[in-house]
Structure formats: C-alpha cells, structure tokens
C-alpha cells in the first residue's frame, strides 16, 4: 500500500506542478504581449505543452480514483506571481525563471523515473511523456539568456527554491 500511495503522491505533485507552470507562462505571455513580443511564440508553445501535461496527470489521477493536491491553489497563485514578476523584469528574467524552474523539475522527474521503473509502469509512462518537453523548455531558456549568471542569481534562487518548496509542500498535502 505504501508504494501505491507514493505513486499517487508523484502524480499529484506533477499535476500540481503543471498547474503552476500554466500560471507562470500565462502571466508571462500576458505581460510579454505588450512589453516583450519576441518572447511570446516560445512561451505560447511551452504553455501548450504544460496544458497537455496537466491533462496527462489529471487523467492518471482519475484512472486511479486519486485526489488532486490540496496545494493546487498555492501552485496557481504562486505561478502567476512568479510569472508576473519575472515578465516585468524582461526577457532575461523570463528565461532565467524558466531555466530555474525547469532544471528543478527535470531533476525531480529523473528521481521519479528511477522510482517508477521499479514500481508502476503506467505512472512511469505518464512521467516519461512529459520529460522531453520539460528538457526542451530548459534548453530553450538556457540558450536565450537564462543561464545562472551573476545578474540572474536572484531569479534562479527564487525560481528553483519556490519550485522545491512547492514540491515539498505538495508531497505532504
């Protein structure tokens, strides 16, 4: 039973994380349309991926009759706040936020994949279905100025630590 609970916890956290990503990108797009239109096509593509990922995890939770994360509103609000703040600071901040969040997410996915390979093939497929998109988001962000350089350290710290805290909180709720 403990293994099944951990699998459901993984799916809940990933579902909530996708909700947060949707909120980040939605807010960044809203601001970027006016201030940084060159960022919009890539952000819209990433948003479409995150929406698809959200549906993958929602379906996986429903298939198991498992609940969603109680911290879902936190992910929604926190993502919107992070998206708003970083978008106001410009393209470098947008891509630094994306890189920080996606690097944390990608590391988390690798840990999940290791566990799920041993315990649940269906959940493993759900996680693997998003892995390439998340890595491509990270690579795009790094290529477009999101490297953790001196000027981006604060954004990296906020993006990665807020993602880590949200993951930690969601594992408990």
From TrEMBL:
Q: Which UniProt keywords apply?
A: Iron, Membrane, Metal-binding, Monooxygenase, Oxidoreductase, Ubiquinone, Ubiquinone biosynthesis
Q: SUPFAM superfamilies, alphabetically? A: Ferritin-like
Report the domain of life of the source organism.
Bacteria
From the UniProt record, give the pathway where this protein acts. Cofactor biosynthesis; ubiquinone biosynthesis
An example GO BP is:
ubiquinone biosynthetic process
Q: Name one GO molecular function term.
A: metal ion binding
Protein's UniProt name: Ubiquinone biosynthesis monooxygenase Coq7
- Please name the source species: Ectopseudomonas oleovorans
